[in-house]
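Notebook p. 47: complex prediction with flavin mononucleotide.
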Amino acid sequence: MRRRFFVGAALAVLFIAGVGWFAPDAWWAMVVVGPLVGVGVYDVTQRHNTILRNFPVLGHLRYFFEFISPEIQQYFIERHTDGMPLSKNQRNLVDARADGRPATHPFGTEHDLYAPSYEGLRHTMYPVDPPTLPRVRVGGPGCSQPYEASLFNISAMSFGALSSNAIRAMSHGAAQGDFYLNTGEGGLSDHHLAGGGDVVWQIGTAYFGCRTRDGDFDPDAFRERATLPNVKMIELKLSQGAKPGHGGVLPAAKNSEEIAKIRLIEPGTVVRSPPGHRTFSDAEGMLRFVDRLRTLADGKPVGIKLCLGREAEFAELCEAMKRLDLYPDFVTVDGAEGGTGAAPLEFPDAVGIPLEPALSAVDRLLREHGVRDRVRVIASGKILTAVSLLRALCYGADLCNAARAFMLAVGCIQAQRCDTNSCPTGVATQRPDLVKGLVVEQKKDRVTNYHAATLEALRDLLAACGVDDLADLRPDLFLEPNHWRHGRGAT
Ligand SMILES: Cc1cc2nc3c(=O)[nH]c(=O)nc-3n(C[C@H](O)[C@H](O)[C@H](O)COP(=O)(O)O)c2cc1C
Ligand code: SF4
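Predicted complex, structure tokens below:
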């Protein structure tokens, strides 16, 4: 292949030189034509790509347009309401709130409120003053260091998936706004601690940051980090919505000295996160491990994160909680609509239960087993506006996390290149030339602003609904889809 490339280049040089010799006036035109001749020779002689072999030079246009198709989609085709994963209106809302601009919308809704899917909020004729939002205590009787959490926090995202500057901006922003930042399964880094705020340390199946050389759980390494003052809670990750039951691979190229040091792995090697945990394989084993982690962490709250797949398994877990009198302090329910840095398409498209049915099942099962008061429920999955936050609270969440919304707050433009290391905004890349474009000093305020404005909007919605106590929230605060066609008027 390399030989063919040099032959192509040599022919191009000869071509330019030949034209320059016989027709000196056309020499400059050949500076353009010559390389194209070289590319053409290379294309027809290579064997890897059929399109380029059959359509030399021109075939590259196909790959160029494919490369910029997300931008074409976003700039020219996408309407305000139908962009995916997040619509233009949603992205603009985060941007305005992060900038401290009013997030008002002119002229009226762009949605069809007569569409079968419309689930409007039932406001009251007698609004109240916007209520003060409570902090939520996480940590049952087994915890000597319970944590008072904000209603809205930053969901798990690893250093490695995100850049150092993105994480630093989130860390400072969360500290300024008094909410927590979850480390993701890639270990606890100095970037997560940079802002000096509250951190939830997540532990995945590879036990990054608390593992032996062979990938087993290392209690000493765990204790060393879990007892740091900024680490307020520990989250044991079973799965995430975008790729439930799928581990991950850290490519050797991304396994830098810095990342290896944080994760306790050999730099420059390929490291796999297995799909499941080595330390347990059933409900009892998991609860005993959670209890062990809590003891090692000097009584800090320890919870689990999962995307629900089978209700029966969660019912079994609730039974085991009661039988053993052992409880996770919280369960984070991640909807199948959740985001990721990278996953095989089958997983985000077709595995797992979306947030609202999963959340209501988890809430119901905890209640049915009489353990709901021992376990806090945290929700994540496209929570980005105050309405989505309120919906999650109505469906059984005690508090919420968001990942992609905070990525937007630090500058993500949904270019969807997170898995290529070429994120143009410096958010999801490790390339220093791109990371330097993300200025921590500026983005940290956007993180704080977006969080504060979203909670302010939540207070306004609660006021419009006449709710001054979050304990009163129920799913029927929202219309059922298509409710009047079923003959059930608003109550
Ligand atoms: C870039 C990126 C990296 C993520 N890394 C992790 C991770 O390490 N651990 C985890 O449990 N979830 C991870 N997630 C999932 C998020 O924490 C969150 O659960 C999910 O994206 C749903 O939230 P969202 O819809 O607000 O993005 C990641 C998501 C993104 C976008
Ligand atoms: S801007 Fe960066 S972080 Fe955002 S979607 Fe694109 S590649 Fe991913």
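Notes: The chain has two domains: 2-67, 136-477. Residues 394 and 487 are 23 Å apart (CA to CA).
Next step: compare against the earlier run before touching the bench.
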